[in-house]
């Protein structure tokens, strides 16, 4: 079977406003896979069937992650090329390169002290909450989620604030894709990462960047820089959306709002619900078939992106159940050899950030005076533009006899 035209454009505000409506329409029309456009004139296949996704993700021989053949025909000016193009990291490599790069990432992430990380999140969260607790209102994205995640990731990478600010600007331009200066962001990213790696070669410390440089994989400076870029970009974008979107769920869904604050359900339950229904990276885990291949009666072209829609697969009615409490069979972390190695870190950071906020401001409410939540356009992420809230003004938290602010 060949796909019918036109392809669904995944980069439009209409798609961002209600992607699940479009997933349902695509499922009814096409089944487990559907034709989409990731950017103007960039065709791809979107996998929306859970079992089909697992088949593809567990078959790296036929579905490698290396995009180099595909990108030969993609102009440098394409807004999503920096997001998808080849880099010397495991998630963009296959074969021996993958086997060399993957341990460098997993071993380094596993070396993070989770107990110390918990204390780090708390030490950052409380001053941020104190900065707006007297006001009675806040934007939890710009005033809490982003600065918290930004500081935590910079600490993990051993990144000085001045370098971290430049990294954040570069990654934002790349992730935004259409309408943003993705090509310029890509250039900035390379320049800033070279500065960070050069710093850690001279002054190594107990941080992820230094550990990558010391790993037995013997990464070059460029390879280490690209590994740092992946951890920084994914960490900022994924964690920010995970925290903020889960807070939106808690504030708007009666099943969770009273239960999480009241204690019968945990923030972890809300996180898992969010990871099922609106994963922060909604459409990713991209592969590029080596040859034309027939899957579910559909011929997939060689070297054209096959994009796993974690959001659509998680809601596939052939596998979906109503009870999601404690159910972690979603694909938000990916599957197969490219599954995310930082699940424990992400859960800990997000849960601690949410718990600290709800403990300090238990009567927090969504501020709907300017309308409901709006979403950033883009084919890959599920991301809010803001999360305004109101709450009774509260005195800053006092810890150890002093106010942290």
How would you describe this structure to a colleague?
This protein is of the alpha+beta class. The chain has a single domain, classed as Cytochrome P450 (Cytochrome p450). The protein contains 16 helices and 12 strands. Helix 12 packs across helix 14. The longest helix is centred in the middle third of the chain and has 32 residues, at 221-252. It starts with 7 loop residues before the first strand and ends with a strand. The model is unreliable at 401-405 (pLDDT under 50).
Topology:
Layout: E1 8-9, H1 13-17, H2 19-30, E2 33-39, E3 42-47, H3 50-57, H4 68-71, H5 81-84, H6 95-110, H7 114-132, E4 137-139, H8 141-157, H9 161-176, H10 182-202, H11 208-214, H12 221-252, H13 254-262, H14 267-277, E5 283-287, E6 293-295, E7 298-300, E8 306-309, H15 310-314, H16 343-360, E9 365-366, E10 388-390, E11 398-399, E12 402-403
Parallel strand pairs: 1-2, 3-8
Antiparallel strand pairs: 2-3, 4-10, 5-8, 6-7, 9-10, 11-12
Helix pairs in contact: 7-8, 7-16, 8-12, 9-10, 9-12, 10-12, 11-12, 12-13, 12-14, 12-16
Structural class: alpha+beta
The description of the largest β-sheet is:
5 strands, mixed
- CATH fold-level name: Cytochrome p450
Taking the alpha carbons of the first and last residues, their distance comes to 61 Å
Roughly how much helix do the residues carry, as a percent range?
40-55%
What is the tally of helical segments? 16
Strand content: 5-15%
Judging by the overall fold, what is the CATH architecture?
Orthogonal Bundle
* Sequence of strands across the biggest β-sheet: 1-2-3-8-5
Mean pLDDT: 88
